[in-house]
Amino acid sequence: xxxxxxxxxRRSAAPEALGAFLHAQAAFVAQKTVVDxxxxxxxxxxxxxxxxxxxxAALQHCRWQVFFASVSDLAAVFEAHLRxxxxxxxxxxxxxxxxxxxxxxxxxxxxxxxxxxxxERAEAWPRHVAALQxxxxxxxxxxxxxxxxxxxATLPIHADQRVGEAPSLRGALRFHVVSTQQELExxxxxxALARGLAGLAPV
Length: 203
Fold this sequence. Notes:
By secondary structure, the protein is an all-alpha fold.
């Protein structure tokens, strides 16, 4: 048992580690969902499309927009996972996550044209999390995703060229969000982290 414990990753209760995880995972969700789809869709023409300045501009806009929305979605996943461990401190938990949420949005400075969207996401978080906290917490496979409509609205592949592909796109996005929850459970000590973010005394 001691030998196995030596190789077992110690779970973190540090808010700053959760903030770094939020940023990294939101970037991963955006990258994998958007770029993988575009690569499959362009197929043998990938090099021509990905070297086209107009396509690249549209692709980068989509990635940023999906990233911003994914920060909010993953913060909502974190809130649902941590809330049961912060009884009596739900509002404070939301505030603690708001700080991590805003920092994640701006950890990698967005292009000037994308910055207003990042600010809008930060400003919308209190209303969003208040609505979430008015109902029981939902797991990642049930939580409504803010990134979904953003993904469909900004993909640099015309809607006429992706008829019938909405289920696979939704599935890819949801898969990465659910995988993030699984990694959250593996990496972080939920009770201590929740109480720390909410400013509650250890039990």
